[in-house]
Amino acid sequence: MAVEKKRLRDYGLQSERLLWPTKGPSVFERELTNDGEIDLQDKVMLTTLEKAVRWAQGHSIWPDTFGLACCAIEMMSIVSSRYDVARFGAETFRSSPRQADLLIVSGRVAHKMAPPLRQIYDQMLEPKWVIAMGACASSAGMFNNYTVLQGVDKIVPVDIYVPGCPPRPEALLEGIVRLQERILAGVPHAYELGKVAG
Length: 198
Ligand code: SF4
Known about the structure:
Elements: H1 16-19, H2 27-32, H3 40-43, H4 49-58, H5 71-77, E1 102-106, H6 114-123, E2 129-133, H7 134-139, E3 160-162, H8 169-185
Parallel strand pairs: 1-2, 2-3
Helix pairs in contact: 4-8
Residues 69-71, 107-108, 134-136, 141, 165-166 line the site of iron/sulfur cluster (SF4).
């Protein structure tokens, strides 16, 4: 069902230009809004505490320093000046899971590594998020054998899957941006949804 776009006049603002029935949005209204579709709360900073917290969390994601295989090289490069993940507030990789709220699983997870990975996840404080980076972390990729976990979502709940072998740094950045969008929109965490396959 189409959602009716709200205009400034729908919020009680009155001027001849706004109330003129046959006129579309004015330049001012277009600048203030997204092509006539207004999100007045965002524009004039009327918000709730919940939204403010989500905004802060979404723009200060601290990933854990954790790499498993070739994908980790691509992950490391996102902090370089070329890709500059600092633009999205996520450049502060932490060496302690207690100071991190994002686990980027970058590479294949051997069964031997599954318990330490789960331990690191458990040591992270909530709220926390998980990105499965690459084919191996998402589904074991080409390693369809008994030594490799067939997808990290067997042991930890995954919020975002980034496809590729390896995904380019840009793809991981997009995954982080998609995660930010989920945080800002208040989408429940994967662990709240019980998204563990095994
Ligand atoms: S997805 Fe490709 S690049 Fe990433 S860990 Fe697996 S084999 Fe390596």
